[in-house]
Amino acid sequence: MAIRREQIWSSDTLWPPDDTEVSCLGTNLHQTTIRNLCSGLNQAASVGIEPGRSLPWTALSQMALLGCQRPDGSYFRTYPDVFVYLMQVDAQRGSLNIGIDGPPALIVEVLSESTFEVEIDHARGKGYSYARAGVPEYIALDPTGQYVAGVAAWRLAGDRYLAWAPGADGRWHSEQLPVVIGLEGVQAAIYLPGGRRMLTEGEVERALARKDADLAHRDADLAHRDAELGLKDAELARRDAEIDRLRRLLEDRS
Fold it and tell me: What's the pTM value of the predicted model, to 2 decimals?
């Protein structure tokens, strides 16, 4: 049975069409994948950075990226699922502009039934527009493998994209920032070059809960040790008092 595709653009829509609130939405897996990618990339940016220092990059999600063009030169509105700038982006910003901020270092689009055609179209779609904008790395990610085989990735060569092959570990090693992108089953994952995986949604809360439990256990151990030390101090004080009493008795007898 053929898959029925949700029609969100009319047949005379400009290509690529403007992103809309409807086109940006997807299944729970789609949205979870976006959150995990964005969170993982931002976790990786903070590794080894002292508090108060600027982060080397910022991953943004479904935020307006202005300045992308169609083949006819007209501009269109896009909200990439995940895109990364090699700078710390002010949290109050509501959009970025290629003409002012330059292109992102990396864009990841998580494919959905309603948008995959425009996102993997390198002749007229977003693949064309992101290359024209100068985005060095572009990934189309499909955890369920319905539209591409898990991950399709490209690197910019001149004014067009060429296939970006995975490494020997089956993951995509970015040349723009020191991270590795891959899939574990249907879960997108971000790794540091040494192989450490960033925590995904839910794992962060579980890790914090474990840390809180460990701290509570340590506090209880310290309280128990303090109590034991208190008892020992009391016993030593009692012995010192007894020694003093006996010393005084000896002095009195002498």
Answer: 0.78
